[in-house]
Design goal:
The protein has 280 residues and is α+β, with helices and mostly antiparallel strands. It has one domain (51-279). 26% of the residues lie in helices and 21% in strands. The protein contains five helices and seven strands; from the N terminus they run αααβββαββββα. Strands 1-2-3-7-6-5-4 form a seven-stranded antiparallel sheet, with helices on both faces. A hairpin with a 2-residue loop joins strand 6 and strand 7. This is DUF3558 domain-containing protein. Residues 16-50, 140-203 are annotated as: Disordered. Residues 16-30 have a biased composition (Low complexity). It comes from Kitasatospora albolonga.
């Protein structure tokens, strides 16, 4: 029959087209030597904890002694804290607390920031590392002293503590000058030494065994014309999340200087608890 060769011809043409498409150069990725685009891995953390519930009530009562002296309704309100206003709670959240006591006023704030890189070639962790290093550089930490392990190191990266600063504040008899000429350029902390400690122990410094990287800052300022206010800040990074703890005190007496050692110890202890909260 005459139509059979026509069918065979169509089948042959169809087979030729299929073979041609398989061998066509349209699949550019299969060509030898073509570049491979690698997307950086995402960060470990995709969410942030609820900041006002991140600190246990018992810890808050220890950090804010004035809370325990309040009536129950006011005490509950004070312990709830005030959430920070943010536009993207998946990226940044925070909470603040404040309590007045007869001898001083204490305030506490915590902030969680989840860093996201929008560059496919840069991981969230690398971007968070850059953000953290910028914060550490801005803190202008102290230069090191033998045996303390605090402050600027002679070698290492910025995240490991490449920094210079000062331990003393002009007019503060307890602030000792740093070991290098760079120390005179820092803002200083005026850290008050406690028995059994030295000014060097309390200087702003890089912290060990807290997240992937961490540092502590200590700033003594005057609130108004007389009262002195001390704020201790602990900042640490774990993967793509950066946490900031700020703990401050302003004594009621003009002549009293807030205890640097106590504030630093409590701020560090809270920071370590928050590191555990993030990892849960």
């Amino acid at each position: 029959m005459a139509y059979v060769p026509g069918v065979a011809l169509l089948a042959a043409l169809a087979g030729g087209c299929s073979a041609g498409s398989e061998g066509s150069p349209s699949g550019a990725d299969s060509k030898p030597g073509s570049p491979t685009v690698t997307t950086a891995p995402p960060g470990k953390y995709r969410t942030l904890p609820a900041p006002c519930r991140a600190v246990p009530g018992s810890t808050l009562k220890d950090l804010l002694p004035g809370v325990s002296e309040l009536a129950q309704p006011q005490q509950r309100k004070a312990l709830r804290g005030t959430a920070s206003v943010t536009y993207d709670t998946d990226r940044k959240v925070g909470c603040t607390w404040k309590a007045d006591a007869p001898d001083s006023t204490r305030n506490l704030s915590i902030d969680f920031e989840r860093v996201v890189s929008y560059d496919p070639a840069v991981s969230d962790d690398d971007r968070a590392r850059a953000v953290y290093v910028k914060k550490e550089n801005a803190a202008d930490l102290s230069a090191p002293t033998p045996g303390t392990g605090a402050g600027k190191g002679s070698t290492g990266s910025a995240e490991d503590g490449e920094r210079a600063g000062a331990s003393g504040k002009p007019g503060d008899a307890q602030g000792a000058a740093g070991p290098s000429a760079e120390a005179d350029t820092g803002g200083g902390t005026g850290a008050s030494a406690s028995p059994g400690s030295s000014d060097e122990d309390l200087r702003p410094r890089v912290l060990d065994r807290l997240g992937d990287a961490a540092f502590l800052d200590d700033l003594l300022t005057r609130a108004g014309s007389t009262a002195q206010h001390r704020t201790v800040s602990v900042v640490f990074r774990t993967s793509n999340v950066i946490v900031t703890v700020r703990y401050g005190e302003q004594p009621a007496l003009v002549t009293k200087v807030p205890d640097s050692k106590e504030l630093q110890e409590k701020a560090q202890a809270l920071a370590r608890k928050l590191a555990e909260v993030i990892s849960e």
